[in-house]
Write a structure and sequence with these properties.
This protein has 427 residues and is of the alpha+beta class. It folds into 4 domains: 26-128, Carboxypeptidase-like, regulatory domain (Immunoglobulin-like), CATH 2.60.40.1120; 141-258, TonB-dependent receptor, plug domain (Ferric Hydroxamate Uptake Protein, Chain A, domain 1); 266-354, no CATH class; 365-426, no CATH class. 15% of the residues lie in helices and 33% in strands. It contains 7 helices and 21 strands. It has helices at 2-31, 147-152, 161-164, 283-287, 289-296, 365-368, 405-413, and strands spanning 32-41, 51-56, 62-68, 74-81, 83-90, 96-104, 109-111, 114-116, 124-128, 141-146, 170-172, 195-197, 206-209, 212-213, 232-240, 253-258, 266-275, 309-325, 335-354, 376-377, 390-391. The strands form 6 sheets. The protein has a 5-stranded mixed β-sheet, with no helix packed on it. A 5-stranded mixed β-sheet has the order 10-15-16-13-14. Strand 5 (83-90) and strand 6 form a beta hairpin. The termini are far apart.
Length: 427
C-alpha cells in the first residue's frame, strides 16, 4: 500500500512538472517568435557542424542564441523575443557570413537560409536581410501592426483596439472607446470590443498582452487591460488556421507585445487632448435645444452651445540599461552598469470631465396621488380583466383598494421629492 502511494505521488509530481513546463513553453510562444534555416555551400550541399550565432544589436550585441547545424545543415532557434537580430554563420574552410536587420515579429516562424562561399574564415560576407519575409513554415493567416504604426496612425482615443480593424476580414461596431473603469462615461454602457473576425461572433475573440489573457471571460466582450500605445512594440491579429498555442477561441487572436529597454536611455512624455472647442455639436443637444438653452446657453449665432467636454490623456515612458550599486567590484564609481539587463516603464493617466444629456420620465402630481390617466386592471387572472376589477381613468386608487404602508412611504419620501415634469410632451 505504501509503495503504491509513493508511486502515485511520484507520477503526480512528474505530471505537475510537465504541465508547468509546457504552460511556460506556450506562454513563451505567445510572446516570441522563431528563426530557422539551412546552411549550404555554393553547390547546394549541406554544411554540418556550422556555428550559428544570433545577437541583438539593440541590447549591446548580446548573444541571444548559439547553435550548431545538424547533418542536413538545418538549424532552429525557437522562443526568441521580438527584435531585430544579426545572424552570423561560421564553418571551417568557408567565409564567415553575417546577415543583418533580421526582424522577428511576435508569433512569426521566419526562415533564413545561408549559402556560404569557400574561403578563409577570417573573411566576412555581410548580407542585409529582406525586410519582408515570406512565411514558409506555417499556414496561419495573420496581420502584424508594428509599434510605429500603432503610435503614428490617427485614432481619437489612444486605444489600440481601433487598429485591429485594419486587418483583412475584420468588421466592427465599436463605440467611442473612452473609459472610466470599464464603462463609457457618456452612455454608462460597458465598453465592448465589438469586433468580428472572418464572420465569427464578437464573443469569440481572445486578447492577450505579453502572453497573458486579458479578455473578460464573464462576457467575452470586454478587455481588462489596455496598454498605452506608447508602450506597444507590436501586435498581431491571427485570423485563421491558428497554431496550437493560440487555440483558445474560434474568432480572432489578438496578441500584444510591449516594449523592452535597450542599451541607451530612451523615453518620452505626451498629452492627448479632446475638448468641446474642437467638436461639432451632437444630434441630441441640437434636437433638444429649446429645453437645454437655459442650461447651456446660446452662442452669437443663436445656436445651442456645445456641452462641456474635457478629456486629457497624459503619460510618459522610459527605458534603458539597469544601474546598481557597485559593491567594490571595481573603481568606476558608485554605480555599475549591467550591460545585459534592461528595464522599461510606462505610465498613463486620464482626466475625463463631461456633462452627458440624460432624460427620464417623472410622475405627474396626479400619479403621485394614485390617479392614472388610463384604465388600470387591479386584478388580472387571465388574458382579460373583469369589469369589476377595472379602475377607471381619473379615479384615485385609494378609493378602491387600501395603499400598503411600504407604497405610501415610497411615494412620500422618494417620489414627492422629485419635481413635477414640465415638458408638455410627456404629460
Amino acid at each position: 500500500m505504501t509503495n503504491h502511494f509513493r508511486q502515485t505521488m511520484r507520477l503526480f509530481f512528474i505530471a505537475l512538472v510537465l504541465c508547468l513546463g509546457l504552460s511556460g513553453l506556450i506562454f513563451a510562444q505567445e510572446t516570441t517568435g522563431s528563426i530557422n534555416g539551412t546552411v549550404r555551400d555554393a553547390a547546394g550541399g549541406s554544411i554540418a557542424g556550422a556555428t550559428v550565432t544570433i545577437t541583438d544589436p539593440a541590447k549591446n550585441n548580446a548573444v541571444v542564441r548559439t547553435l550548431t547545424t545538424n547533418d542536413d545543415g538545418d538549424w532552429s532557434a525557437p522562443n526568441l523575443p521580438v527584435s531585430v537580430y544579426k545572424i552570423t554563420v561560421e564553418a571551417t574552410n568557408f567565409k564567415k557570413t553575417v546577415k543583418t536587420d533580421v526582424k522577428l515579429e511576435v508569433g512569426q516562424r521566419r526562415t533564413e537560409d545561408f549559402a556560404l562561399e569557400a574561403g578563409n574564415i577570417s573573411e566576412t560576407v555581410t548580407v542585409e536581410a529582406d525586410p519582408v519575409a515570406v512565411n514558409l513554415s506555417t499556414p496561419t493567416a495573420a496581420t502584424t501592426i508594428n509599434g510605429d504604426q500603432v503610435r503614428e496612425l490617427s485614432i481619437n482615443n489612444r486605444n489600440f483596439v481601433q487598429l485591429v480593424t485594419l486587418a483583412p476580414g475584420v468588421t466592427n461596431d465599436l463605440d467611442d472607446l473612452v473609459f472610466t473603469g470599464t464603462n463609457n462615461p457618456e452612455t454608462q454602457v460597458v465598453n465592448r470590443a465589438l469586433i468580428s473576425v472572418n464572420g465569427a461572433r464578437s464573443t469569440q475573440n481572445t486578447f492577450t498582452v505579453d502572453g497573458s489573457d486579458v479578455t473578460d471571460r464573464g462576457s467575452n466582450l470586454t478587455i481588462q487591460a489596455y496598454p498605452s500605445i506608447d508602450s506597444i512594440s507590436e501586435f498581431k491579429v491571427l485570423r485563421g488556421l491558428f497554431p496550437a498555442e493560440s487555440g483558445r477561441s474560434g474568432g480572432g487572436q489578438i496578441n500584444v507585445v510591449t516594449l523592452s529597454g535597450g542599451k541607451k536611455f530612451h523615453g518620452g512624455a505626451y498629452e492627448f487632448v479632446r475638448n468641446e472647442v474642437f467638436n461639432a455639436n451632437d444630434f441630441n443637444t441640437n434636437r433638444n435645444g429649446a429645453t437645454l438653452a437655459a442650461t447651456l446657453g446660446r452662442d452669437d449665432n443663436g445656436k445651442i452651445k456645445r456641452r462641456p467636454f474635457r478629456y486629457n490623456d497624459y503619460g510618459f515612458t522610459i527605458g534603458g540599461p539597469v544601474y546598481f550599486f557597485n559593491f567594490g567590484e571595481n573603481d568606476n564609481g558608485m554605480f555599475k552598469k549591467y550591460s545585459q539587463t534592461f528595464f522599461f516603464f510606462s505610465e498613463e493617466q486620464r482626466r475625463d470631465i463631461r456633462y452627458p444629456t440624460l432624460s427620464s420620465i417623472a410622475p405627474t402630481a396626479a400619479l403621485k396621488q394614485g390617479v392614472f390617466p388610463v384604465d388600470i386592471c387591479l386584478r388580472a387572472t387571465s388574458a382579460t380583466c373583469a369589469a369589476a376589477d377595472v379602475l377607471p381613468a381619473g379615479t384615485p386608487i385609494s378609493s378602491r383598494v387600501p395603499l400598503s404602508n411600504v407604497a405610501q412611504q415610497y411615494v412620500s419620501f422618494i417620489w414627492n421629492k422629485i419635481p413635477n415634469p414640465t415638458n408638455p410632451v410627456t404629460l
